[in-house]
Amino acid sequence: MQPAAGHVGVLPTEVKAGEAQRFTVRVPSERDVDTVAVEVTFPDEVTVYSVKPEPGWDIRMLYRPDRRTKGVVFSGGRIGPGQFQEFDLLGTPSAEGTAVWRSRQTYADGVVKPWTGPPEEPGAAAPESGPSEPGPASAMTISLGGATPAAAATGGGGDDDASAAVWLGLIAIAVAAASAVGVGFLWTTRPAPLPDDE
User: Fold this and answer.
1) Which of 79, 92, 138, 164 lies 20 to 30 A from 27 at CA?
2) Predicted model pTM
3) How far is CA 170 from CA 91, 166, 175, in A?
4) β strands within 69-196, DSSP E
């Protein structure tokens, strides 16, 4: 059995829960036939809310009964043999654990390759399963986010950020004090009013 040459994968393979993320669906065309469509099913642990358009490709969103996004179908384009295409999604992981992205790759000859099998073990390549037999689905690890929302908004927090905030505060106080002294000096050195003419 030879290892699979490549399969539909979703990157990155490690993300943090609660943080908006750009996901990239990478689709290689490993047969000697063009790929003409790809259907990607979103994991329950990830909410996808936006898809980047790709020139030459049509996008059809799939929805659950409650109108949450369930997946997406890219069609109308072509990925030639030995080539690959990437599609970008925006979403937010919501739960710690392993998220499995299942997909179906349609070739120009009508063969559909389901990438719906168990994900590959880390460091191990799944054996080639044939053009229409299930291959390994893509998986990613979702960990709990360590930063608070305020720290995430400012870039992560930490001692360096705290020191920078203290220095910025001291500089602001010094500038305000210098401004007050300058205004006071100008006020005391203004010309005295002349007496009124009689």
Assistant:
1) 92
2) 0.69
3) 40, 6, 9
4) 69-79, 84-93, 97-107, 112-115, 138-143
